[in-house]
Amino acid sequence: MIHWLRLHRLALLATLRLILAHPLASLFNLLVIGIAVALPLGLYALVSNLQGLAGQLPTETQASVFLHTNAGPADIGRVQTLLSQDPAIASARHINKHQALKDLEQTSGMADLLAGLGDNPLPDSFELTLKDGASTDLAALQTRLKADAAIEYVQLDSEWAQRLASIIRLGREAALTVAALFGAALMLITANLIRMQILTRREEIEVSKLIGATDSFIRRPFLYFAAVQGLLGALVGIALVGLGLNRLNGPVSQLASLYGQSFQLHLPSPPVLGLSLSTVALLSLFGATLSVGKHLRSIGN
Amino acid sequence: MIQFNQVSKRYPGGFEALKNLSFQIDAGELVFLAGHSGAGKSTLLKLIAGIDRPTAGSVVVNGQNLASISRGALPFLRRHIGLIFQDHKILFDRTVFDNVMLPLDIVGYDRREAARRARAALDKVGLLGREKLNPISLSGGEQQRLCIARAVVHRPSILLADEPTGNLDRAYALDIMELFKSFHQVGVTIVISAHDESLMADYGRRILRLNKGQFTQ
Ligand SMILES: Nc1ncnc2c1ncn2[C@@H]1O[C@H](COP(=O)(O)OP(=O)(O)OP(=O)(O)O)[C@@H](O)[C@H]1O
Ligand SMILES: [Mg+2]
Fold it and tell me: Where is this protein found (chain B) (predicted)?
């Protein structure tokens, strides 16, 4: 056990020495990895910030139902029952068309104009508050309600929120796709870096094999190197995203203040960052494993 | 300890470097391997270390048949063997000391104990004062001795030396032969190859003579 730990410590120390021995090349590699990590992570950060913003908005979904202007009291009564029985609706408030006209006269100051119209142009309407979770199936609710002959129009006030939600979903998909692409690229980059290292250390590998090094002894430093490099590169990527968000934060909070809001962009949560770090380390490790498996066999016997 | 049964080695090009060799070397023996350049001395030593495999016959080392040894078991067999390569195979990207440490690192020796052993081995070959240098700054004879230190540092039971006195003058060569004698005295089985038989004669040991891949008397 101690012996095993010693071999691993040896490999880890060798890795750090190797990284420090070629500071410029190492820095360059870390930047390459960092950028590959920063792009999907940055996209993800933007999307999840947008989602946070959407979360600050009222979640209760509202809708309005407008009747035909010629709807009579019987129609109104029937629609009232219909609405109160619908499983997606929490409550429905009737707005009398006469009342609506009076309200409009008072708030708009267009009393003269409206008086000149003679007939009341406004319909009877209902203001609905939807149940939680009902917002997922608004289209169904809409068709259900429109089936009643007295109902002219159903307006979903949350339509824009839905649109925002689908934009967020789209952004999230895009972030995942970019992450998959860059993950694959990262693996190939690492495989190639390790291949070059194996070639430059060919002699050492050959001699080590000849004097009794096992395959895992030979493999270990390369795998450590890949994993450590991946981790450091991912940290660079996170730092890049942090810097980018920081730069955006000035204009963003200015924009938010125009709407009377205070809003700041944040890095993704620690679990997400942890997941990115370990994913990058694993991908690097995997790339290195492929490379080592392919190239070590060809050296020595 | 080392046993060859009707061993032949044909290289991929078709050249038969060793032809139907049978012999045995007992534990603790010191044996010389003589023969002209191209006779097959290096090939024979490579077969003992499992660096190459015979195309016919069996090579048994330490009770293990190298014709059928698994890839995984080979490193552990090699740890019982000290190899002095004809082309030295010194690593010039590290110090003299680190070259000697390599066999111990491979085995996962405790660092402090390993360092002690490495210094002892360097002392034995007279290079203790040079441990921090890059081996590139050593003379040919010193590099040869560095190879010997690296080959014996992990105290192998078999020592295979391929032309260890190759391009040294006679005084140096005698020094090195004295070294081998001291290893022999502590029970190491040793095979030393050379194309020049004049050094061997003085020692009165068994000499295996190769000529075009076959033994002669
Ligand atoms: N890898 C190889 N492929 C093909 N032929 C080889 C190979 N290695 C050695 N040979 C041939 O096998 C023969 C024996 O080579 P070997 O290296 O064993 O000779 P040697 O006795 O060690 O010679 P020297 O004293 O010059 O070192 C030579 O003719 C050589 O050309
Ligand atoms: Mg030779």
Answer: Cell inner membrane; Cell membrane
